[in-house]
Amino acid sequence: MAASLRDRLRTLCLTLPQASEKEAWGDPTWRVAGKIFAMQKTGDGRFSIWCKAPPGSQEILVGADSARFFVPPYVGSKGWVGMRLDESPDWDEVAALVRRSFALVAPRRVAALLENPPPG
Fold first, then answer.
1. In whole angstroms, what is the distance from residue 55 CA to residue 118 CA?
2. How many angstroms separate the CA atoms of 92 and 114, rounded?
3. Is residue 31 a part of any domain in this protein?
4. In a domain? residue 39
5. What digits encode the pLDDT tens for the residues 59-111?
6. How far apart are CA 56 and CA 21, in angstroms?
7. pTM, whole model, 2 decimals?
8. Which of 35, 53, 96, 106 suits a disulfide with 81, CB 3.0-4.6 Å?
9. For residues 34-60, b (16+ Cβ closer than 10 Å) or e, as one string?
10. CATH code at 97?
């Protein structure tokens, strides 16, 4: 199951403009312009993704559904949010979380490609 979750997450992240994958801390991370916008984590025995979130989003998500969303260690104090993926995730919601994180981390010209992809 973890391999299929990882593959789906990888596909989702790598379809974003100029995204790349690099292993760090034993798990894959996805980056744009050298900055991490998503991290897969399995260290606590659960499969999750950590993403940067806009100010206030972490509190809203964790407050609304603490069984699925959590404040991740290390980066939680910087507004990142964790989402557990090992129990039937809503992939539209995962995609929205990843895309928002990407837009927050990517250079403006690259983030703009989310809304206005180049022709072809």
1. 30
2. 16
3. yes
4. yes
5. 999 999 999 999 999 999 999 999 999 888 999 999 999 999 999 999 999 99
6. 28
7. 0.91
8. 53
9. eebbbbbbeeeeebbbbbbbeeebbee
10. 3.90.1150.30
